[in-house]
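Incident review: delayed structure delivery

Summary: a single-chain prediction request sat in the queue longer than the usual turnaround. Root cause was a stuck worker, restarted by the on-call engineer. No data loss occurred. The affected request and its eventual output are reproduced below so the record is complete for anyone auditing the incident later.

Affected input:
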Amino acid sequence: MSRLIPSMVFFRVSLAAALLSNGLQGAGLEGDIVDWIAVVAKTGLYVAFVELALDVIWALVIRLSSRGVAPPRILKDLALVAAAFVVVAAELNSQGLLTTVGSAAVLGGLAFIVGPGSATQISNISAALAVQVERQYVVGDWVEIAGQMGRVDNISWNSTYLYDDTDDRYIVVPNSLIDHSKTINYSRPSRAEYRLEVEVGVPLNMPPGQAMRVLKSVLDSNVEIVNKDRSSVVIRSIGNDSINYALKFFVPDFAVRNRIRTQVFSSVWYAIERHGYSLPHSIVDLRTEQTRRQLRERRSSEAQEKCFNLLRKIELFSSLTDDEIQGIVCNDNILAFGPGEMVVNKGEIGGSMFVIMEGICSVLIPDPSDETSMMEVAQLKSGSIFGEISALTDAPRTAWIQATGHVLLQEISQSQIEAVFLNNQTAMAEFAKVMATREAGLKTFTLEEKKTFELGLVERMTQTFSRLMNS
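Output delivered after worker restart:
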């Protein structure tokens, strides 16, 4: 609210001049000096009312603006100077004092009050006027001036004020630098879309066609990236250790650029790892191939043991033998996903179910109030299972599952489920019974509805496995 309080500069000038004039007259002094001080008091009061009117107008503009920001301060100052010149000239003329010397003295004092001038300030003012006339940027634009990036919060006679949201600070850039350095305006030509670019290096042994497909899928799966048809992946250069790609995409708000860049970088890492590659890094590995193989086997064995112990504790797998669970963890993959990545998409035909080993996933459904967005209805933690109905019956996925951070999943493929249940019909029936109990708890089934769901699930599972076996 402080911006609504007038500066009171001219009120103070008028009051000081009036007190001085009355004091001199009270002391019995008369003459041109006393008359001039009285004129300053009167004209200062008029200019003060003009400034107060401009303050009111600026407050109304802020209130009526859709973005809630004021026009540049320089426009207000220009209006004040023009109005003050008119007021001073009219008052001097009415007093018969509109002479060359008198005008220069009063207007010079007025210029000193509004803002002292110098060669540097003249350059700043010239650049500020050029910015306003050419509309290079306006308040609210995201710009980069002389290497400094931020949101334009104010344009004064001397400086442009940038808000740096990364470090939560203000950067004051002298306007004179605008004439001598490059200015980038990220808010032009459109405020609805902001172009970002992320450069990543991919291993030389990963085919470019596959790499570009994987990187493009990262952009397509990020729900905060807009206008995905214009997203692109291009080869920037080929280095000693990597092929460097540029990922170009659009976001709706420049303020979220750092968060989305972080999501894209982490998603690229996870996507490359899932395809059997790793991001290039320049190190000298003195280990032998045998040592590296033993290390990979040890890590794989530790992950399988951890997954076995987790599955053994889950009620859904209580009907399976240790050998059957061991077969799952040995033959199926452990997958890693990063923040914001989609694990499954609504409407897809599921070929796998998943068990969360580490991390948290969000369950998303279409937002009833906005069909173009999604809303979170639940969070799944370590030990949770999702995708089982779709994997067992070939039904479409009913929701999106998104990783909220680093997530480690045990995939249980349809082929592995088939291998277990075709040889263990009792396990399939027990599996269906546990799932029916879970569904009954979620949907408040009656006993009859629960039994019907259980029998229908067994039937659908049998049909799915029979179809897979025939195919």
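Verification: The chain has 13 helices and 16 strands.
Action items: add queue-age alerting; document worker restart procedure.
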